[in-house]
Amino acid sequence: MKMKRPTGFLTATFKPIILVVIGLCFIYMIKINSDFKTCGTRRIHDVDPDRAKRAQKYVEKVLQAECRPSFAKNKMNKLFMNKYSMDVTPFINKDISAQPSLFKYDPPFGFHKFSEKLQNLLQLLPEYNLPEDLQSKHCKRCVVVGNGRILHGLKLGSVLNNFDIVIRLNSAPVQGYTDDVGNKTTIRMTYPEGAPFSQDEYYPNGLFVAVLFKTADFHWIEAMVKNETLPLWMQLFFWKQVAAKIPVTAKQFRILNPIIVKETAVDILQYPEPQPKFWGWSKDLPTIGVTAVVLATHLCDEVSLAGFGYDLSQPDTPLHYYDSFCMAAMNGQTMHNVTTETVILQKLIKEGAVRDLSGGIYCDFCEKTGYN
């Protein structure tokens, strides 16, 4: 006669494993948060007024010049021949069956084993492109506004507002910083943990572009679209607290095409081909910032960036324009290789594919004799 195991056998077997996993997640979150030491008590130097004025004039000159259709794409294609895709769709649409390359890699580089979850999510989203007024525009200019401290004091806000598309990253605030960063937000690009908590950071016509990394991210997006509350147990799968509700309608949501993440990592940064990992990430994962720059080249004819550039040689200086976290935090993180990204961004700027409006990566306006 076949012996029947007690009903509590599986629970007794897996309970210790579950507790260990939760414990590791908790330790990981503590480690991440401890890396971000504050530099609030340190003296912050004022920006040279002459440098701020030259930066403002440089941006004005960029905007006054005639917009060049397809300029960024053609430059990228030339720099990364046979690697940069000229016709990739920036956002995922419902026709995923015709795109087998979407399912080659695990998130965030693809949707391997996530076909059903993706399809269910896409059924909730009615739109997949830019708003019609932007989509039909003959020549579009993008600016990707980074979160770097270099924006502090440059007073670029009013000129940044004049770009056709303004892309902001993660939870970087606008309220209280408009003089330096402007108040126009066309796209907020982030993942669940990076979504702003303040409802004031969402705009009626702005797009929320989601980068999906894990199963829980699909559930979070679905809950936000349906205006539902994410189950408490599901919140354990995020490395920090996520917003419970955000004021974004279904037609404002977009899902970033993961091929752009793969293109950024493998074809542009020349990282190894993505491999599945049981725990954590190596430094083969591009930042949201550099991924947004590549996305911008697919969306717009001309691309600029502002607020980029980490000076890792100054570990005790503030990291962001909106808080007092130390630059040293970037040396402690294990997900991104910001040195490699800086080299690539310098290449893009020096070759003229994109422009650096704040001069943190490569400064075209720092010489008083001209504004190249």
Main-sheet strand order equals: 5-4-3-2-1-6-7
Q: Total number of helical segments?
A: 12
What is the radius of gyration?
Answer: 22 Å
pLDDT averaged residue by residue:
86
Major sheet, described briefly? 7 strands, parallel
| Structural shape | globular
Note the run of SSEs as H and E: HHHHHEHEHEEHEHHEHHE
Report, as a whole number of angstroms, the end-to-end distance.
86 Å
| Helix proportion range | 25-40%
Which structural class is indicated by helix and strand composition?
alpha/beta
Would you report the number of β strands? 7
Beta-strand fraction estimate: 5-15%
**Low-pLDDT runs:** 1-36
Task: Give a quick summary of the entry.
The chain contains 12 helices and 7 strands. It has helices spanning 9-35, 49-64, 71-79, 115-122, 132-135, 157-160, 178-181, 215-225, 258-268, 288-299, 328-332, 338-350; strands at residues 141-145, 165-169, 187-190, 207-210, 253-255, 302-306, 355-356.
Label this structure with key terms.
glycosyltransferase, seven-stranded parallel β-sheet, lactosylceramide alpha-2,3-sialyltransferase activity, 12 helices, glycoprotein, signal-anchor, alpha/beta, 372 residues, disordered N terminus, EC 2.4.3.9, 7 strands
Q: How does this structure look, described?
A:
With 372 residues, the chain is an alpha/beta fold. The protein has helices at residues 9-35, 49-64, 71-79, 115-122, 132-135, 157-160, 178-181, 215-225, 258-268, 288-299, 328-332, 338-350; strands at 141-145, 165-169, 187-190, 207-210, 253-255, 302-306, 355-356. The chain has a 7-stranded parallel β-sheet with strand order 5-4-3-2-1-6-7. Helix 9 packs across helix 10 (288-299). The chain starts with 8 loop residues before the first helix and ends in a 16-residue tail after the last strand. Mean pLDDT is 86; it is low at 1-36. It is an enzyme of class 2 (transferase). Disulfide bonds join 142-300. It is a single-pass type II membrane protein. Its EC number is 2.4.3.9. The chain crosses the membrane at residues 12-30.
